[in-house]
Amino acid sequence: ETYGGFGNAPKFPKPHDYLFLLKYYSRTKNARALAMTEKSLIEMRKGGMYDQIGFGFHRYSTDKSWLVPHFEKMLYDQALLVHAYLEVYQVTGDQFYADVVREILEYVERDMTSPEGGFYSAEDADSEGEEGLFYLWTTSELDELLGESDSQLFQRIMNIRGNGNWNEGRRHGGTNIPHLKQTWSQLARVNQTNEDDLKSRYEKIRVKLFNVREERVHPQKDDKILSDWNGLMISAFAKAAVVLNEEKYTVLAENAANYALTILRAKDGGLLKRSRKGEAGLHGLIEDYSFVIWGLIELYQLTFNVDYLETAVELSDYQFEHFWDSQGHGFFFTPDNGEQLLVRSKEVYDGAIPSGNSVAAYNFIRLGRILSRADYEDISHQTMTAFARNLNRSGSGYTLMLQGVEYFYGPSYEVLIFGDPKSAQTQKMITEVRNIPQPNKVVVFAGKDGGDLQSLIPFVGMYPSSNDGSPLVYVCQNYSCNLPTDDINKVKSQLGN
User: Fold this and answer.
1) In a 10 Å sphere around its CB, with 0-12 CB exposed, 13-18 middle and 19+ buried, how is residue 266 labelled?
2) DSSP 8-state secondary structure symbol assigned to residue 397
3) I need a labelling partner for 331 at 20 to 30 A (CA). Which of 30, 270, 271, 300 fits?
């Protein structure tokens, strides 16, 4: 309750915990669940675990107050935290959370995106043989770079101390980790100024320090491109493009998907684990399939490009064929056509990264609802049932799997939209439906008459659409749809809002 997050030290961000709490809040309107989420996400952003100068989150905090990070930056943390901040933004409408998303994605685009479109894996903690050196500042440096007035302002805002603001810093030359202890409104009152003016002045200082920092020796970059972490990042950029209506994010998500589905696609239709400098190899593991499929589902929700849906189905079928445990149910960690092992294990714990089984359960229920495929829903249900003992015994260790359970048992919704895709009226309806804060929904855009979708979803051709191409919306549950409407308020009501 003091610092947010769960437990003492070290503290990992575990964004899927907050995604679960947000879905629980959506279902129950339990204000405590939302408060826990907001407190945690605000404190993480204020702390030293967040790179206040160049953006992006470090891997974890070594202390309970989020001050002193392990300075490594991981791609998967950026992706999952984008999801958490986006969902709390959708629930609250607070621009603070949208700004954090934009900052994280600015970092990923700038420092973690390859020229070919794939995303690099990580940045090391060390530079010049010392952990965190790249990110640390002394008061004398700041005074020299910024001048007295700006230096004093930055030091007040970011809690910089002459003898250092962390234990190692006090022992080694008075180095500081920039971090916030107050909100911007509180800082504006303390500094007797307008909040917008203070932010504007601070931003100029931050950019100046960032440009100076760029001249330092950078931590080494792990430039492997991994299928699973790229899948997570694709899903994050695609979701951000939907929620923030930012075309640039669409381009980045599609470029990365193109990389994954060409360079990281095996000849037999499966996925390869990794690539570096154009060379790809190793059989993909369960996370590679689950996370890439997650990315493809989000891309379909963004673009309504049927190709992404078709590829998600191809990879899902491959995953089921080669990873499924036909006796105990759930998915093995390794495929049956890979290296022959004495024992094929199954992972389900949602640690720093959610498990492949958890994401698979969530994927199959969402795909099942998009495509009206009962067999996919059965796969999801059997996966959750296979690990039911784990969930009942220690639910907090399986928060992504629990989101699949919550989605499966509902209420959850399928929204089918017909209309002329070139019509401004149709596009406005799509945007408004997407912005309804109902997390347990999937949206299918069928064009004027079902069009290309009919090969994947034959039933869409049976739904009446308008003669003039104006938008019509069907809200469905449990394979039963309400009468069509062109009234967004009726859609909101049918979605429980």
Assistant:
1) middle
2) G
3) 300
